[in-house]
Amino acid sequence: MKKIADYDTYNYDYSTYWKKREYEHISEEILLKNLFAKLKGQWFLDIGGSFGRLTDSYYNNYSNPVIVDYSLKTLQKNSKDLKKRFPRIELIAANAYNLPFKERTFDGALMVRVLHHIDRPKDCLTQIYRILTPNGKYIQEYANKVHIKAVIRALIHFDLSIFNTTPYQQPDKHHYEGTKEGSKVLFLNYHPKYISDMFNKIGLRIDKKYGCSFLRSAFLKQTFKTEALLSIEKLLQKTLSWSNISPSIFLRATAIKEEQEIKSAKNILDICVCPVCKERLSFEGNSAKCDKCKTQYYKKEDIWDFRV
Ligand SMILES: C[S@@+](CC[C@H](N)C(=O)[O-])C[C@H]1O[C@@H](n2cnc3c(N)ncnc32)[C@H](O)[C@@H]1O
Ligand SMILES: [Zn+2]
């Protein structure tokens, strides 16, 4: 199985995934509206932000929002439309394991529905911690290994491995996200304790946990109207977020690090560094060269490609 979920291999159009998932989409929007209510700042990074499904939830809270995604094709395809809807948005193609940004830059960052494609979460989160400012806010969504349906299913099969904290690779059946039918893709569900231990070790203090998509079930979605499910969802987000029963969990965390004076940058090129060695880049037209390792990067159809 490939170690990076490269949506470009089969020209996967992620927006099609959302055609029949109105309940899940609005559930996430409701949760994020609440979560972002008191957050604001300058630079903001949506990691694996794709076609900007969630950009509405943070755009007005930050003066310099950036979407970073491994899928160059998705960014190229959606760039015009995104910039029309969100004129201040910047799009960068890069790998979440090797973020091409200066340390201590982002006042906020978000990762939704991406961690299941990341099999070295500690390496990836260490990078994210690096680019956050002291007290920067980080919002993490992950697929929950011990949601209520998974626990019931495991108990019926006397499978006690559900309770250990090892990440769980979903069976290939029905998980072609980012690829084509029949191809394997990383799709990991994480145990809440595994995630919280890792956050603590890295220096990301978890401030609050939220459950989401409590009613994700084909039967419920066929039987009840979306509006009815969403009314209950709102109530469950308020009352049951302490539990681990929902299939999706969101965390709001703070990057704990020593304060240092930071020069604030205004331009996206001022915050970009070489994704390999994190040294300065020299830009010339549509190309950039690392001052140290000399790796060359290019702007392709309006999008800088820093994928390594
Ligand atoms: C399931 S989509 C989620 C998109 C968006 N966050 C949302 O919730 O609508 C996963 C996205 O993560 C991106 N992705 C996967 N692995 C990545 C990596 N290592 N670095 C950057 N982006 C990655 C994919 O290209 C894809 O756009
Ligand atoms: Zn370099």
Brief digest:
The chain has 308 residues and is α/β, with parallel strands linked by helices. The protein has 9 helices and 13 strands.
Report on this structure.
It is a single chain. The protein is α/β, with parallel strands linked by helices and 308 residues long. It has one domain (14-305): Vaccinia Virus protein VP39 (Rossmann fold), CATH 3.40.50.150. Helices cover 29% and strands 24% of the residues. The protein has nine helices and 13 strands. It has helices at 22-36, 55-58, 72-85, 121-131, 148-156, 192-202, 218-223, 226-239, 268-271; strands at 41-47, 62-69, 90-93, 106-111, 132-143, 168-169, 188-189, 204-212, 248-255, 281-284, 287-290, 296-300, 303-305. The protein has an eleven-stranded mixed β-sheet with strand order 8-9-5-4-1-2-3-13-12-11-10, sandwiched between helices. Strands 6-7 form a two-stranded antiparallel ribbon. Helix 1 packs parallel to helix 8 (226-239). The longest helix has 15 residues, at 22-36. The site of zinc ion has 8 residues, from loops.
